[in-house]
Amino acid sequence: MSREIRIATRKSALALWQAEYVKARLEAAHPNLKVSLVPMVSRGDKLLDAPLAKIGGKGLFVKELETALLENEADIAVHSMKDVPMDFPEGLGLYCICEREDPRDAFVSNTYADLDALPAGSVVGTSSLRRQAQLLARRPDLNIHFLRGNVNTRLAKLDAGDYDAIILAAAGLIRLGFESRIAARIEVLDSLPAGGQGAVGIECRTDDAEIHQLLTVLHDQPTAWRVTAERALNKHLNGGCQVPIACYAELEGDQLWLRGLVGQPDGGRLLRAEGRADVSEAETLGIRVAEALLEQGAAGILQAVYGEAGHP
Ligand SMILES: NCc1[nH]cc(CCC(=O)O)c1CC(=O)O
């Protein structure tokens, strides 16, 4: 096989790690395949036109990679599934989901062993409303402070003494070699993860059958079923990037068990719902659990959050 695969990637440490991981696995499986990385420079100008600007936040970074695929500057884009919007542009789709890393949130602190060890009034860093809602529901005394930036930046801010603890996805820390920084993994019961957390997905052109075939060695069907159910829930709740929605699917034999949560950002109310279905019904299950959340009043909570964030 003489084909070359060009991987479009952002330049953050985590994005590069994920791209290198896919490159290494593709090369191992297909010895004659040439795989290269195409690191994307910022295209701030392109972000200003209306349709892109509407997508916002994380969606913008994905968009940049998608443009490279559509313009045939690259062949595949590697994403953290939790950052991938629900719908794809015409001509592109998700053709591979790799085996999931630890999906849990991680408690990271230089002083305290876990959440319960934090003294009253401690400062915890996270910019995720999902994490904030669940933290405050359990520990209303904590002070949640905004924490932005990539994984390295966030760890540096913790080390500078700005926070007593921070919450990050375990997966990102493990991939970047920072597993030893995890003081405690927070069980999913206490911090239900974001849909797709810990899973890496590969997007490519719909009509590129040769690439689809080459990618099959990286596909992990159990992860794909789980992430499909989670994304269906997010989609049904219209979950964008800054919303207090959590969901997590596990496999019990050939049954999917999906748990979903919508939380008031101040932790005052956490709505929970769950359901089980055959793996072939992953999407229906996601919609069903989302409906159960809506019946409890999820729309009101989400509407209040969108209002504050300035969304329509
Ligand atoms: N929001 C950014 C982001 N996107 C994916 C991960 C971690 C790795 C993953 O979930 O696959 C992170 C960092 C974090 O939330 O701590």
Automatic annotation (TrEMBL):
Give the pathway listed in the UniProt entry for this protein. Answer: Porphyrin-containing compound metabolism; protoporphyrin-IX biosynthesis; coproporphyrinogen-III from 5-aminolevulinate: step 2/4
Per its record, the protein catalyses:
4 porphobilinogen + H2O = hydroxymethylbilane + 4 NH4(+)
Write out the GO MF terms: hydroxymethylbilane synthase activity
Sites of S-(dipyrrolylmethanemethyl)cysteine modification:
241
> Which key words are in the record?
Porphyrin biosynthesis, Transferase
Secretion signal, residue range per the UniProt entry: none
- What positions does the domain Porphobilinogen deaminase N-terminal occupy? 5-212
Concerning SUPFAM superfamilies, the annotation shows: Periplasmic binding protein-like II (SSF53850), Porphobilinogen deaminase (hydroxymethylbilane synthase), C-terminal domain (SSF54782)
Keyword Transferase tagged: yes
Keyword Manganese attributed: no
Where is each Porphobilinogen deaminase C-terminal domain found? 226-294
Cofactor requirements of the protein: dipyrromethane
Cite a single Pfam family from the UniProt record: Porphobil_deamC
Q: Which Gene3D superfamilies match?
A: Periplasmic binding protein-like II (3.40.190.10), Porphobilinogen deaminase, C-terminal domain (3.30.160.40)
InterPro entries according to UniProt: HemC, Porphobilin_deaminase_cofac_BS, Porphobilin_deaminase_N, Porphobilinogen_deaminase_C, Porphobilinogen_deaminase_C_sf
Describe the family membership recorded for this protein in Swiss-Prot or TrEMBL: Belongs to the HMBS family.
Remarks, anything else? The porphobilinogen subunits are added to the dipyrromethane group.
Assembly and binders: Monomer.
Family annotation (PANTHER family) = PORPHOBILINOGEN DEAMINASE
Which HAMAP family does the annotation name?
Porphobil_deam (MF_00260)
Q: What does this protein do?
A: Tetrapolymerization of the monopyrrole PBG into the hydroxymethylbilane pre-uroporphyrinogen in several discrete steps.
Q: What name is this protein filed under?
A: Porphobilinogen deaminase
Organism name: Serpens gallinarum
Q: Quote the gene name from the UniProt entry.
A: hemC
